[in-house]
TrEMBL record:
Tagged with keyword Transferase: no
Class of the enzyme per the UniProt entry, highest EC level: ligase
Top-level taxon in the UniProt lineage: Bacteria
Binding site for ATP: 109, 151, 180-183, 188, 267-268
Oligomer and partners: Homodimer.
Protein name: N5-carboxyaminoimidazole ribonucleotide synthase
Length: 386
């Protein structure tokens, strides 16, 4: 493998060709690595940058297995992948980064929480239930009380599969789930950690995330987070500990809550590049994608030094528009100092679809946030069709 390392004779497979897959492939192409992507959508974001597009369902055993057979090493850009196929490929000697066993654990929010408790890592109280009946029994016996947060153990994303249950009138989600105490959240922050096979770990600076009330999607990612030095050190220390305790190689994005008393609690993790790391492309010496490639290829990890303060804004499809996309105000937006526009190449928009992001670099977060207001005013994702 080593002689193939950064040449076109190395075939790297990426499971799913969304924006994160596209960004990783763009990075790999700088080294001339031959890239393969598996995605059901022929018009996926990665399609126009990947060396070899393979059509297939990432949740289907046969599709994932056949894809793995074509490449020298494999990684993924989303969690919802067929684990059995990955495990079979691994048992047959394919290098898969991160390890499928870690993915299997992280796919299940209940197992994730048990892991934190076992390793004495701070997280909110929780319990796992099989069905609604068990919740009702727990409520009757006093073991559980309103309000609580119900989360599907598997398959949730962007707030789908999470419900705040305030009382009897909130209907419960169906499926295996876990229940958490409602945290009185002051801020939501994230740290992305990277680890290579030699055990070297580097963390990106903590970022602060703000959410859109209507969509639950991350609206802005602010770097550095407006938290105390002690809090950012604590979050980085925890990130270092978590990735090391998973013994994982690759990238781990860790989302934390800071509660009103200042406690830092682990919410959840994702073993892949992450929305909260988009700014790293423009504002950190080594981007999250470059770092992941280094980890995958067992190279020394790169500097996570901040080049500039930044705010990242997700560019979402404007409500009321669905169809072939155009970007209104693109030129005006480009005239704003420090603005970097990233478009994912999705052909059609729909309300709140993630179509791109904008990173605004500035000497101060305050100034970047002012510019965010201008960007929001001028740049809109629309369609000629309604
Ligand atoms: P997803 O995997 O869909 O991103 P999360 O577990 O991150 O799900 O939850 C989505 C959002 O719900 C969080 O960003 C947070 O705002 C809110 N949330 C989740 N868990 C809790 C909790 N225990 N207490 C209060 N709010 C929560």
């Amino acid at each position: 493998m080593i002689e193939k390392l950064v040449t076109s004779s190395l075939k790297m497979g990426v499971i799913a060709g969304g924006q994160l897959g596209k960004m990783l492939i763009q990075e790999a192409s700088r080294w001339d690595i031959t890239t393969y992507v598996l995605d059901p959508d022929e018009a996926c974001s990665a399609r126009n940058v990947v060396s070899q597009y393979v059509k297939g369902d990432v949740r289907n055993f046969d599709d994932v297995y056949a894809f793995g057979k074509q490449v020298d090493l494999l990684t993924f850009e989303l969690e919802d992948v067929n684990i059995e196929a990955l495990q079979k490929l691994k048992s047959e000697g394919l290098k898969i980064v991160p390890d499928p066993d870690i993915l299997a654990l992280i796919q299940d929010k209940g197992l994730q929480k048990e892991f934190y408790v076992k390793h004495n890592l701070p997280t909110s109280d929780f319990a796992c239930y099989e069905d609604e009946e068990q919740i009702k029994e727990a409520l009757d016996s006093g073991a559980l009380a309103y309000p609580f947060v119900q989360k599907l153990r598997k398959g949730g994303y962007d707030g789908h599969g999470v419900s705040v249950v305030k009382g009897e009138n909130t209907s419960l989600l169906k499926g295996a789930f876990m229940v958490e105490g409602l945290v009185d959240i002051e801020k939501e922050i994230a740290v992305i950690a990277a680890r290579n096979a030699k055990g070297e770990v580097r963390c990106f600076p903590a970022v602060e995330m703000t959410f859109n009330d209507e969509t639950n999607l991350v609206e802005e990612v602010i770097c550095p987070a407006n938290i105390t030095d002690a809090q950012s050190k604590e979050a980085e220390k925890l990130a270092h500990e978590i990735i090391s305790k998973f013994h994982m190689v690759g990238l781990l994005a860790i989302e934390f809550f800071i509660d009103k008393s200042g406690n830092i609690l682990i919410n959840e993790v994702a073993p892949r590049p992450h929305n909260s790391g988009h700014h790293t492309i423009d504002s950190i010496v080594t981007s999250q994608l470059k770092q992941l490639l280094r980890a995958i290829l067992d190279l020394p990890l790169g500097s996570t030094q901040l080049i500039s303060s930044s705010v990242m804004l997700n560019l979402l499809g404007e409500p009321g528009y669905e169809g072939p996309v155009y970007y209104e105000g693109f030129e005006e937006c480009m005239a704003i100092e420090g603005v970097k526009i990233h478009l994912y190449g999705k052909k059609s928009t729909r309300p709140f679809r993630k179509m791109g992001h904008v990173t605004i670099l500035s000497d101060s977060v305050e100034d970047a946030l002012e510019k965010v207001k201008e960007v929001k005013k001028v740049l809109k994702v629309k369609s000629w069709e309604k």
